[in-house]
Amino acid sequence: MSGWIVSIILLGCLVGLHLFWQNRCRSIALGQAEATGREAGLAKAVGMAGMFANMPEGVLVTDADGRIEFANQAFCRLFDLQENPSGKTVMEAIRIHQANDLIERLKVESSIEQEEFMLPDLEQRFLQANGVAIREKEGVHRGTILMFHDLTRMKRLENLRQEFVANVSHELRTPLSIIKGYVETLLDAEEDPESMNHRFLAKIENNSNRLTFLIEDILTLSRLESGGIGLELRDIDLGQLVDSVLDSLREMAGKKGVRLENHVGEKLSLFADSQRVFQALNNLIENGIKYGGECVCVSAKSDGSEIDLCVTDDGPGIPAEACERIFERFYRVDKARSREMGGTGLGLSIVKHVTQLHGGSARVESAPGEGASFHLTFPIPDKPVVTETG
Ligand code: ADP
């Protein structure tokens, strides 16, 4: 008789647990379970929870108040948690403010949001968190699902690659400058400019120069990528900066019969590193002279939150498929033309990194036969503070 009673009590507990679990799952069912299709949504949620449990990525589900509803084993392992964090806020459980910021952002954003951060542990692990909001059909925020991915190995490999590139480029500089020195001496001694020796030496000099530009560009790019270049941010007079870039390129433009125009209004200031912006503008204007038509024009406008710096030319333009790839390293629309012009294929990649380092972005607008407009967008900080970042 007592066996029956124990069985009935156990059965009751199981039914209770099942109902409790059903409730939990309903709250993470991404609001998809409508009155008519509730069972399908629920089955999906139960499946999801089972799937999350065995995933190598850390998965976290929070409710509308940011309290943890579900955390899988991988999440607990990633953050070295000894006990299940359910019921706690993210700050209480893992003390990572970037994860907390992500949850706050997802209360209003509908897109997938992302954060990368380093764990404050001895191993200096690097994590990426992707999050999406759980909303009901009416748009009511029910919570968030976050997925944490360990990027440490990838970051280490990336650092190794960057170090390798920087070291190789650096090592190539010395022998190259010795070659150039000897070639210059031999060229000076060669009296007949039409002689075979003179012509060959001139070719060696020309190609040594190309190699020097390439090495300098690779070094600049690897420093920009690794954050090895500290930005010296200050207010710069944009009109004056554009003038100085145009002055340095006037001789080159003159030889090609290209007109240079500065349309940047007076007193427009940009909070940026002048040397880096000079470099980005130089690359764009130089390209405008090399690949463009008769005129290269620089203009700028501000909407109060960002400054849009634009370099326009009236040249042959760039085909649509090339516009999408033009900021990639070593991408050229016309390889032969780029080489003939002494291009390295890295100029626009440097431009992109310079703007990204300032928190901005670079893009191109062009169509064949209609010239090209390169836009660099720089955010205007709320409170400009003179700082050095690295
Ligand atoms: P490069 O050293 O070859 O000039 P960049 O990265 O500066 O390398 O430019 C990449 C390619 O984009 C160039 O090779 C050229 O084909 C194309 N390009 C750049 N600027 C322009 C422009 N203003 N008009 C047409 N094509 C351009």
Short description:
The chain has 390 residues and is α+β, with helices and mostly antiparallel strands. It has helices at residues 2-27, 38-53, 73-78, 90-94, 97-106, 152-189, 196-226, 238-256, 274-291, 320-323, 335-340, 347-357, and strands spanning 58-63, 68-71, 113-118, 126-135, 141-150, 231-232, 234-237, 259-262, 269-272, 295-302, 306-313, 361-366, 372-379, 388-389. A hairpin with a 5-residue loop joins strand 12 (361-366) and strand 13 (372-379).
Describe the structure.
- This protein has 390 residues and is of the alpha+beta class.
- It has three domains: 3-150, 2-Layer Sandwich (Beta-Lactamase), CATH 3.30.450.20; 154-229, Orthogonal Bundle (Helix Hairpins); 230-390, 2-Layer Sandwich (Heat Shock Protein 90), CATH 3.30.565.10.
- Helices cover 49% and strands 21% of the residues.
- It has twelve helices and 14 strands.
- The protein has helices at 2-27, 38-53, 73-78, 90-94, 97-106, 152-189, 196-226, 238-256, 274-291, 320-323, 335-340, 347-357, and strands at residues 58-63, 68-71, 113-118, 126-135, 141-150, 231-232, 234-237, 259-262, 269-272, 295-302, 306-313, 361-366, 372-379, 388-389.
- The strands form four sheets. Strands 2-1-5-4-3 form a five-stranded antiparallel sheet, sandwiched between helices.
- Helix 7 (196-226) runs parallel beside helix 12 (347-357) and helix 8 packs parallel to helix 9.
- It is elongated.
- 26% of the residues are buried.
- Mean pLDDT is 85; it is low at 1-11, 13-22, 27-43 and 384-390.
- Adenosine-5'-diphosphate binds next to helix 9 and helix 12.
- Adenosine-5'-diphosphate (ADP) is lined by residues 283, 287-288, 291-292, 313, 315, 318, 326, 331-334, 338, 343-349, 372.
